[in-house]
Design a protein that fits this description.
The chain is α+β, with helices and mostly antiparallel strands and 286 residues long. The protein folds into 2 domains: 133 residues, Aminopeptidase; 123 residues, Aminopeptidase, CATH 3.40.630. The longest helix has 16 residues. The strands form 2 sheets. The protein has a 7-stranded mixed β-sheet. Strands 8-9-10-11-12-7-13 form a 7-stranded mixed β-sheet, with helices on both faces.
Length: 286
Protein backbone atom coordinates (compact mmCIF):
# COMPACT_ATOMS: atom_id res chain seq x y z
CA UNK A 1 0.00 0.00 0.00
CA UNK A 2 1.15 3.53 -0.84
CA UNK A 3 0.13 6.36 1.45
CA UNK A 4 0.92 10.07 1.65
CA UNK A 5 1.53 11.61 5.07
CA UNK A 6 3.37 14.43 6.80
CA UNK A 7 7.08 14.00 7.43
CA UNK A 8 7.74 13.66 11.16
CA UNK A 9 10.88 14.07 13.28
CA UNK A 10 11.43 10.30 13.35
CA UNK A 11 11.53 10.24 9.53
CA UNK A 12 14.36 12.75 9.05
CA UNK A 13 17.25 10.30 8.69
CA UNK A 14 15.34 8.20 6.16
CA UNK A 15 14.24 11.30 4.21
CA UNK A 16 17.84 12.56 4.10
CA UNK A 17 18.94 9.16 2.72
CA UNK A 18 16.18 9.26 0.08
CA UNK A 19 17.05 12.77 -1.09
CA UNK A 20 20.79 12.10 -1.11
CA UNK A 21 20.11 9.19 -3.49
CA UNK A 22 17.73 11.28 -5.60
CA UNK A 23 20.04 14.29 -5.82
CA UNK A 24 23.57 12.82 -5.95
CA UNK A 25 25.15 16.28 -6.36
CA UNK A 26 24.05 17.09 -2.80
CA UNK A 27 25.69 15.30 0.13
CA UNK A 28 23.49 13.77 2.82
CA UNK A 29 24.66 16.42 5.31
CA UNK A 30 23.11 19.11 3.10
CA UNK A 31 19.67 17.58 3.63
CA UNK A 32 19.96 16.60 7.27
CA UNK A 33 21.33 20.03 8.25
CA UNK A 34 18.41 21.77 6.55
CA UNK A 35 15.85 19.41 8.06
CA UNK A 36 17.29 20.04 11.51
CA UNK A 37 16.95 23.78 10.96
CA UNK A 38 13.31 23.25 10.05
CA UNK A 39 12.87 21.20 13.21
CA UNK A 40 13.59 24.22 15.42
CA UNK A 41 12.30 27.17 13.37
CA UNK A 42 8.88 28.71 13.94
CA UNK A 43 6.24 27.19 11.65
CA UNK A 44 2.68 28.58 11.31
CA UNK A 45 0.07 26.55 13.19
CA UNK A 46 -1.69 23.71 11.32
CA UNK A 47 0.92 23.55 8.55
CA UNK A 48 3.47 20.74 8.17
CA UNK A 49 6.92 21.49 9.54
CA UNK A 50 8.89 19.50 6.94
CA UNK A 51 6.54 18.57 4.09
CA UNK A 52 5.03 15.33 2.86
CA UNK A 53 6.26 11.86 2.01
CA UNK A 54 5.08 8.85 0.05
CA UNK A 55 5.44 5.69 2.09
CA UNK A 56 5.47 2.07 0.96
CA UNK A 57 5.75 -0.71 3.51
CA UNK A 58 6.85 1.86 6.14
CA UNK A 59 9.69 3.06 3.90
CA UNK A 60 9.78 6.54 2.27
CA UNK A 61 9.76 6.32 -1.52
CA UNK A 62 9.03 9.98 -2.23
CA UNK A 63 9.30 13.36 -0.54
CA UNK A 64 8.18 16.92 -1.13
CA UNK A 65 9.85 19.39 1.22
CA UNK A 66 7.95 22.53 2.22
CA UNK A 67 8.88 25.69 4.10
CA UNK A 68 5.88 27.59 5.48
CA UNK A 69 6.37 31.16 6.67
CA UNK A 70 3.96 33.76 8.04
CA UNK A 71 4.52 37.05 6.24
CA UNK A 72 3.05 40.54 6.41
CA UNK A 73 1.59 41.56 3.02
CA UNK A 74 0.03 45.02 2.98
CA UNK A 75 -0.48 44.96 6.73
CA UNK A 76 -2.17 41.56 6.72
CA UNK A 77 -0.62 38.26 7.77
CA UNK A 78 -0.44 35.69 4.98
CA UNK A 79 1.22 32.31 4.55
CA UNK A 80 3.90 31.60 1.96
CA UNK A 81 5.02 28.07 1.17
CA UNK A 82 8.32 27.39 -0.56
CA UNK A 83 8.09 24.10 -2.47
CA UNK A 84 11.74 23.38 -1.95
CA UNK A 85 12.58 19.87 -3.18
CA UNK A 86 10.70 17.01 -4.82
CA UNK A 87 11.82 13.45 -5.44
CA UNK A 88 9.99 10.16 -6.00
CA UNK A 89 11.66 6.86 -6.77
CA UNK A 90 11.01 5.89 -10.42
CA UNK A 91 8.84 2.86 -9.60
CA UNK A 92 6.40 5.09 -7.68
CA UNK A 93 6.25 8.16 -9.94
CA UNK A 94 2.60 7.50 -10.82
CA UNK A 95 1.72 8.32 -7.20
CA UNK A 96 3.54 11.66 -7.19
CA UNK A 97 0.42 13.75 -8.11
CA UNK A 98 -1.22 12.53 -4.90
CA UNK A 99 1.56 14.11 -2.86
CA UNK A 100 1.60 17.32 -4.92
CA UNK A 101 -2.17 17.75 -4.62
CA UNK A 102 -2.10 17.40 -0.83
CA UNK A 103 0.81 19.84 -0.51
CA UNK A 104 -0.92 22.57 -2.58
CA UNK A 105 -4.48 22.26 -1.32
CA UNK A 106 -4.74 25.59 0.54
CA UNK A 107 -6.18 28.33 -1.67
CA UNK A 108 -5.23 31.13 0.71
CA UNK A 109 -1.54 30.13 0.71
CA UNK A 110 0.95 31.56 -1.80
CA UNK A 111 3.16 28.75 -3.14
CA UNK A 112 6.54 29.56 -4.64
CA UNK A 113 9.03 27.51 -6.62
CA UNK A 114 12.33 29.40 -6.74
CA UNK A 115 14.57 26.70 -8.24
CA UNK A 116 12.59 24.88 -10.94
CA UNK A 117 14.57 22.68 -13.31
CA UNK A 118 14.01 23.73 -16.92
CA UNK A 119 12.45 20.40 -17.87
CA UNK A 120 9.71 20.99 -15.24
CA UNK A 121 8.56 24.43 -16.45
CA UNK A 122 5.69 23.15 -18.60
CA UNK A 123 4.43 20.91 -15.80
CA UNK A 124 4.65 23.73 -13.26
CA UNK A 125 2.68 26.07 -15.49
CA UNK A 126 0.08 23.35 -16.08
CA UNK A 127 -0.44 23.27 -12.30
CA UNK A 128 -1.44 26.94 -12.35
CA UNK A 129 1.89 28.52 -11.45
CA UNK A 130 2.84 31.85 -13.00
CA UNK A 131 6.32 33.20 -13.59
CA UNK A 132 7.15 36.23 -11.47
CA UNK A 133 10.91 36.41 -12.05
CA UNK A 134 12.45 35.81 -15.47
CA UNK A 135 16.16 36.04 -14.70
CA UNK A 136 18.98 37.49 -12.64
CA UNK A 137 20.75 40.82 -12.85
CA UNK A 138 24.45 40.50 -11.99
CA UNK A 139 25.32 43.93 -10.65
CA UNK A 140 28.82 45.30 -10.06
CA UNK A 141 28.11 47.60 -7.11
CA UNK A 142 31.68 48.84 -6.66
CA UNK A 143 31.22 50.73 -9.94
CA UNK A 144 28.39 52.78 -8.42
CA UNK A 145 29.19 56.04 -6.70
CA UNK A 146 29.07 55.57 -2.91
CA UNK A 147 26.76 57.86 -0.94
CA UNK A 148 28.59 60.41 1.15
CA UNK A 149 29.33 59.36 4.75
CA UNK A 150 27.44 56.07 4.50
CA UNK A 151 28.64 53.33 6.87
CA UNK A 152 28.25 49.57 6.39
CA UNK A 153 27.61 47.61 9.58
CA UNK A 154 27.67 43.81 9.96
CA UNK A 155 24.74 42.29 11.87
CA UNK A 156 25.48 39.32 14.13
CA UNK A 157 23.15 36.49 15.07
CA UNK A 158 22.87 37.74 18.66
CA UNK A 159 21.83 41.27 17.63
CA UNK A 160 18.66 42.32 19.47
CA UNK A 161 18.11 45.94 18.45
CA UNK A 162 19.17 48.24 15.60
CA UNK A 163 18.39 51.95 15.54
CA UNK A 164 15.92 52.76 12.80
CA UNK A 165 14.65 49.20 12.27
CA UNK A 166 11.59 47.49 13.69
CA UNK A 167 11.73 44.53 16.04
CA UNK A 168 10.54 42.20 13.27
CA UNK A 169 13.23 43.50 10.88
CA UNK A 170 15.93 42.89 13.46
CA UNK A 171 14.61 39.38 14.13
CA UNK A 172 14.75 38.61 10.39
CA UNK A 173 18.33 39.89 10.12
CA UNK A 174 19.56 38.01 13.20
CA UNK A 175 17.86 34.82 12.04
CA UNK A 176 19.59 34.96 8.68
CA UNK A 177 22.93 35.71 10.30
CA UNK A 178 22.40 32.49 12.27
CA UNK A 179 21.80 30.66 8.97
CA UNK A 180 25.24 31.81 7.80
CA UNK A 181 24.24 34.70 5.54
CA UNK A 182 26.15 37.95 5.33
CA UNK A 183 23.79 40.49 6.94
CA UNK A 184 24.49 44.20 6.52
CA UNK A 185 22.92 47.48 7.51
CA UNK A 186 23.87 50.57 5.54
CA UNK A 187 23.66 53.66 7.74
CA UNK A 188 23.08 56.91 5.88
CA UNK A 189 24.47 60.24 7.05
CA UNK A 190 21.00 61.23 8.33
CA UNK A 191 20.78 58.05 10.43
CA UNK A 192 18.44 56.02 8.22
CA UNK A 193 19.11 52.27 8.22
CA UNK A 194 18.85 50.04 5.13
CA UNK A 195 18.97 46.26 5.79
CA UNK A 196 20.41 43.68 3.39
CA UNK A 197 20.90 39.91 3.49
CA UNK A 198 23.43 38.36 1.09
CA UNK A 199 24.68 34.85 0.49
CA UNK A 200 27.53 33.37 -1.58
CA UNK A 201 26.13 32.06 -4.85
CA UNK A 202 26.67 28.77 -6.68
CA UNK A 203 27.11 29.48 -10.38
CA UNK A 204 28.18 26.16 -11.83
CA UNK A 205 30.80 26.73 -14.51
CA UNK A 206 30.71 30.52 -14.04
CA UNK A 207 33.66 31.59 -11.90
CA UNK A 208 32.40 35.12 -11.14
CA UNK A 209 32.71 35.69 -7.34
CA UNK A 210 29.07 36.58 -6.67
CA UNK A 211 26.77 37.12 -3.76
CA UNK A 212 23.01 36.66 -4.12
CA UNK A 213 20.57 39.20 -2.76
CA UNK A 214 18.41 37.26 -0.31
CA UNK A 215 16.61 40.24 1.16
CA UNK A 216 16.31 43.98 0.90
CA UNK A 217 13.29 46.10 1.76
CA UNK A 218 13.20 47.55 -1.77
CA UNK A 219 15.41 47.28 -4.84
CA UNK A 220 15.60 51.09 -4.76
CA UNK A 221 17.40 50.78 -1.41
CA UNK A 222 20.05 48.60 -2.99
CA UNK A 223 20.50 51.01 -5.88
CA UNK A 224 21.01 53.84 -3.37
CA UNK A 225 23.49 51.86 -1.24
CA UNK A 226 25.25 49.89 -4.02
CA UNK A 227 28.45 51.92 -4.01
CA UNK A 228 29.02 51.46 -0.27
CA UNK A 229 28.11 47.76 -0.40
CA UNK A 230 30.32 47.21 -3.43
CA UNK A 231 33.41 48.64 -1.78
CA UNK A 232 32.71 46.60 1.36
CA UNK A 233 32.42 43.39 -0.70
CA UNK A 234 35.41 44.00 -2.98
CA UNK A 235 37.69 44.15 0.04
CA UNK A 236 36.44 40.63 0.86
CA UNK A 237 36.82 39.21 -2.65
CA UNK A 238 33.27 39.58 -3.98
CA UNK A 239 32.71 41.64 -7.11
CA UNK A 240 29.08 40.98 -8.05
CA UNK A 241 25.67 40.91 -6.39
CA UNK A 242 22.95 39.00 -8.25
CA UNK A 243 19.34 39.95 -7.71
CA UNK A 244 16.01 38.74 -9.07
CA UNK A 245 14.92 40.81 -12.05
CA UNK A 246 12.76 40.88 -15.15
CA UNK A 247 15.23 42.95 -17.14
CA UNK A 248 18.19 45.30 -16.70
CA UNK A 249 17.99 47.35 -13.48
CA UNK A 250 18.18 51.09 -14.06
CA UNK A 251 20.74 52.74 -11.83
CA UNK A 252 23.06 49.74 -11.57
CA UNK A 253 26.00 48.61 -13.67
CA UNK A 254 25.71 44.96 -14.57
CA UNK A 255 24.53 42.18 -16.86
CA UNK A 256 21.02 40.71 -17.10
CA UNK A 257 20.69 37.00 -17.90
CA UNK A 258 17.72 34.74 -18.66
CA UNK A 259 16.50 32.13 -17.89
CA UNK A 260 18.89 31.57 -14.98
CA UNK A 261 17.01 32.39 -11.80
CA UNK A 262 13.49 31.87 -13.18
CA UNK A 263 10.89 31.65 -10.38
CA UNK A 264 7.17 30.81 -10.15
CA UNK A 265 4.26 31.38 -7.78
CA UNK A 266 0.66 30.31 -7.35
CA UNK A 267 -1.79 31.92 -4.96
CA UNK A 268 -3.12 35.29 -3.79
CA UNK A 269 0.13 37.27 -3.39
CA UNK A 270 2.75 37.75 -6.08
CA UNK A 271 6.16 37.63 -4.34
CA UNK A 272 8.28 40.75 -4.34
CA UNK A 273 11.56 40.69 -6.22
CA UNK A 274 14.70 40.60 -4.07
CA UNK A 275 12.98 38.87 -1.14
CA UNK A 276 14.10 35.25 -0.73
CA UNK A 277 14.12 35.39 3.05
CA UNK A 278 13.32 32.17 4.94
CA UNK A 279 13.54 30.22 1.70
CA UNK A 280 15.34 27.01 0.77
CA UNK A 281 18.41 29.06 -0.17
CA UNK A 282 19.03 29.88 3.49
CA UNK A 283 17.39 26.91 5.25
CA UNK A 284 19.19 24.28 3.14
CA UNK A 285 21.85 26.40 1.47
CA UNK A 286 22.70 27.56 -2.07
Amino acid sequence: MIRCREIEIVDLDAIADLLANGFPVRPRDYWIDGLRRLAVRETPDSFPRFGYMLEHDRTPVGALLLIHTARCDGGNISIRCNLSSWYVQPAYRSYAPMMTKVAQRHRDVTYVNISPAQWTWDAIEAQGFRRYCAGLFFSFPALSRPPRDMRVEVVRQDTQAIDGLSESDVALLARHALYGCLVLVCRAADGRAFPFVLQPMRLGRISLPSMQMIYCADVADYIACAGAIGRFLVRRGWISVALDANGPVTGLVGIYREPIGRKYFKGPHCPRLADLSDSELVIYGP
